[in-house]
Amino acid sequence: MSLLERQLAFVNALRAAGLTVSVxxxxxxxxxxxxxxxxxxxxxxxxxxxxxxxxQLHRPAFDAAFEVFYPAVIGESAVPASTTVPPPRDxxxxxxxxxxxxxxxxxxxxLADYLRDGGDDARLDQLAREAVAxxxxxxxxxxxxxxxxxxxxxxxxxxxxxxxxxxxxxxxxQERGGLAERRARTMIEGRAARFARRVEADVRRRLAxxxxxxxxxxxxxRPTLERVAFLGATRAELAALRREIQPLARRLAARLAQDxxxxxxxxxDFRRTIRAxxxxxxxxLTTVQRPRRPAKTDxxxxxxxxxxxxSFAHFTLLLVYALREQFxxxxxxxxxxxxxxxxxxxxxxxxxLDTVTRLAAEADVTALLGxxxxxxxxxxFEQRFADVVGxxxxxxxxxxxxxxxxxxxxxxxxxxxxRAKHAYWLNPERRSMWDTGDSRASExxxxxxxxxxxxLAQLGEFVxxxxx
Length: 468
Hints:
The chain is an alpha/beta fold. The chain has 18 helices and 10 strands.
């Protein structure tokens, strides 16, 4: 692969991971490479990042792809041979246990030194390469072939088991449980996380050598935060997604304001246009439009907050309330097998995590069984809050349409949809999973449009279209 082909494949991998890279930005990156010292890897990384990355949120995905397409080392010869010679083994000694391994002991000792004292990146890279070389190989499923695994490496080295001894060494007789211990623990955990990232980078490098860079990035690189599926997000990703709600709301509000300004010109005002043309001899050099007076709609959100989709419901509610100024009024209702209005939890300026915690703890959304019951939810809403939905209302239903084989109350839902100005159903599952198992997606979709909404990017685009 030539350098140009490698760069084009790198840009395509970034686009597949969720980064928005235009043709012009790709050309800028190629031009930047002509001015960079290609033997200086960090200079190349900085130059390409300046051309291709527009948001700090996307930098981790860029760095992960860069490590595969422009690796620091290529081939096993880059892994230095161990200088530690294992002591001779007594033939009469008892067999070693599964964790008694001189190479493992040496790597763990070197890692403990790094976690305690720190060190430069070169030392950390060497330690990660040695760990992967020693413990990262796993069968690939093809006869005679091997693959590499981050999990296999970290499970053998197990940095977390070094914490107790490191804390004892760092604190050196200081009182446990205080500020000093918390600072030491945070420092050690941060260094352990850096080691895990270097192990992951080396695993990707070896996989790219064994196969190719494009397929390695496609298999191993997680999408950008905006494209992480709500239902498959890790705890750390969920926390990062919560932090992204307010910035996303600000960007959406700015885009909505721009769209409204562009669309502020209404239809042609013929009489005023003719009157204005008198000053130019009857030639209508300029036209006059009637002012457009868009009316804001009410928004009613009816969301399933059962365990299977609770994170999706929380993010949607948080984003809608962050954009509440784009609607004349917003009311929210949550259900599992009981229905409760949860508008009270979304106070202006409230803390995101506190809002989610209070909603989970205080909302009265479960009755006897605690399993999702769409039929009960729609029937209760029709009985208690029928007057909430009117001719200026947009109705938004959030859920995976999995009914636990219960009743659906489709007539009650049809009445609500018939009274609303607009009605949509957001489903966080892949479209290919609809109508599998207890999913009744097609029956609900026959009454109101159902939209796949699996990540923050899709959610943001839908809310923008809804409010515009």
